[in-house]
Predict the structure.
Amino acid sequence: MKILVLAEINDGELAEDQTSKTISAAAKLGKVDVLCASNQCTDASAKLAKMENVENVLVLEDVLFAQSLAESYSETLIDTISSYSHVFAPSSSFGKNVLPRIGGMLDVMVISDVSKVISEDTFERPVYAGNAMQTVQSIDKVKLISVRTSNYDTVPLTGAANVKKIDFESNNSLTTFIENKMQTSDRPELTSAKVVVSGGRGVGSKENFEIIEGLADKLGAAVGASRAAVDSGFAPNDWQVGQTGKVVAPDLYVAVGISGAIQHLAGMKDSKVIVAINKDEEAPIFQVADFGLVDDLFKAVPEIEKKV
Amino acid sequence: MKILVPVKRVLDYNVKARVKADGSGIDLTNVKMSMNPFDEIALEEAIRIKEKGNAEEIIAVSIGVQQNQETLRTALAMGADRAILVVATDDVHNDIEPLTVANILAAIALKENPSLILCGKQAIDNDFNATAQMLSAKLKWSQATFASEIDIQKDIVRVTREVDGGLQTIDAKIPAVVSVDLRLNEPRYASLPNIMKAKRKPLEEISPADLGVEITQRLKVIKTEEPGSREAGLILENIDQLVEKIQENVGG
């Protein structure tokens, strides 16, 4: 068994939380090597080398990897990747983009969004928006696993791995990067935040979403949204929590004006404590909330913001 | 140009999935099935591209059981020009894995030569989010996933992608495989006259063997279980109690 973890690095910046949790999942099977491919690898590889259970950090530095385009990544790295029996990546937009393409190239299935590594060939993953948990056994020669990182903790920074440069020939004639428009925010990142305040359709408009953001800022929280709120244009898609958005498991999840459709619950029901505010006492969100308040959010949320 | 749109027949979005008592999967007998919502978005986009004069033909493909022809009739009623049904199994519970789906679609693409394949980013049943990426690898075509904006230009398609933290724009060389995300568009409903017209549109039925593709299963399902459930908690009397609970759990 040889295990590789694909570190997520965006334009030279390591996605530390996601990558560390992916290493944590992979390390259930043994020591791992980590692939560090980006346009700038010095900082990222130094951080990766300290992560527990990492044996080797394989460094591939090229401007071609800056945006982790699927073709640049998979076509160039396929030889390195295919010499491993297990390849893990976070189930982020990076992992979901790159890993199945590698699967297509190697003619192996990808095991997406793994919530539990059971053994070297057996994994648990949610299906049907988390309405069922499926345990699957892979017969493929290479196991490609994307990890639901909210199910794992980060690894301690007690390691001292070898850092090795790898030779490669870069290749991507298919896609060209044009630009990124990233949401800049001082708020914590949604998937790793300790507290998340989310708004749903009940918030009513993009302007009203400021109420949610106000409470989030008071609590030092990340802002989330239900699919209904994103669909209605109240919130950007990268705030979406649920089956087709992000999966979060913070210490505290505050759901405001969210009815609690199964697709939303799929993304937050592993939160430690769930608080729900909704004026409809029949809302399904109250079936999963630890603490509920039946009240008008426009009255309740500003008052809570003042008092916390 | 020609656009290929794969459409999957899945348990309807509004129906709660129930785990079968023997743990073999989700019960799909006598439940409402519909087109995968992300595939509807992909099809809608193909129709809009055609309406703008940037495409001549839209081919919808579905892979699964005989009944998938209902899904294809819906696609034809929405605006696809013709349909291909690949009958790959006679049991609706037998989900065809993305890798096999990609092999079947690649074989069809080599026959039909589309310039663009528009896929939903994931099926809401198995939630794999893999077919488009595997298909573009099989064809060695360019790949643009999670599209929220698609602009067809001369030799490229400019795609704005929903990524963690924001939006990314890339140019993908045509032919391309593009997977679509939620905010790309809002799919239309088929009108009654179009539903009637769809009955006369061509629907070809083939088998994977006709395409020289073998159905394989790389992931054996060991068991399917209900997820651990949460208990409903306390309904609080007033805002002050809620403030107290929030304070107890912030940073806790």
Notes: The CA atoms of residues 108 and 140 of chain A lie 6 Å apart. Helices of chain A lie at 16-26, 42-49, 70-81, 93-106, 209-219, 227-231, 262-265, 297-307. Chain A is about 25% helix and 30% strand.
